[in-house]
Predict the structure.
Amino acid sequence: MNTVSNELKGHFAAAFTVLVWGSTFVSTKILLHQFGPVEILILRFLIGWSFLWLICPTKFTVVNRRHELLFALAGLTGVTMNYLLENIALMHTQASNLAVIVSTAPLFVGIFAFMIMGHRLKWNYFCGFLLSMIGIFQISFPNLGDVQLHLSGDLIGVGIAIVWGIYSILMEQIGKYGFDNILVTRKIFGYGILFMIPFIGFFGSFENVSLWMKPKNLALLLYLGIIACAVSYMTWNYAIRVIGSVKANLYIYASPVITILFSVWILHEKIDGKKVLGMMLTILGVILSSNICNKKDMKIRGENI
């Protein structure tokens, strides 16, 4: 019973995280009218890191060098590379292209989980992936004439999906060691910020400090830093620890759906029948993919948890 309860909590944590991350596109889009993408990125993670220190001011020292390496790699992939590659890709391709390509991340997570951790994937996982991709493609390109390939940016998008797959596997491995979730997230943020510093000069500066003090900008930044970074990374890492990287990442398929809903609500963007159809197909794909491991594998992982 306790295992079932924990699994439900894991699914809820993954759903909550993707719900928040789906809303960040709208928040970031508003801020991008006045600030640079890297400026927003570094400030939000600094706020998130500071918030985690505030709620848990405990020093976290890792004795095992292998563990420390895993934290560093998680910060490099899940924070620095993931967001920097996203910003670079947006300079070379359409946002709709990137949304579709990055949504393939669960497929790479499944492949890496099979290759590295021995997870076995059932047929419905791949059928659900295909159905979700059709739905996401319908959302991003309701008219076939809208499809335009931008080789360099689109390839970077594939890189983002691969990087997120690596991060997810790293987090599943870190979760096995039983470290406190807040301390783990804080350490990963610390490494992520550290790896971002060399890129400040290339991608932006901090010349608009006074503009950040405006109530609307400050509120959006605090939301991105505290809720979308600190809280959401904690819930995401918890979800991976409880239900595994493969199942948790299935919720990423729903991210474009959530972004559209927030865009309609906050930005008053219009939605048509084709996008509604795409949203329904995407959600059905998530449901179809949800039971992705053999019972034997689930039993083994349940014992590990």
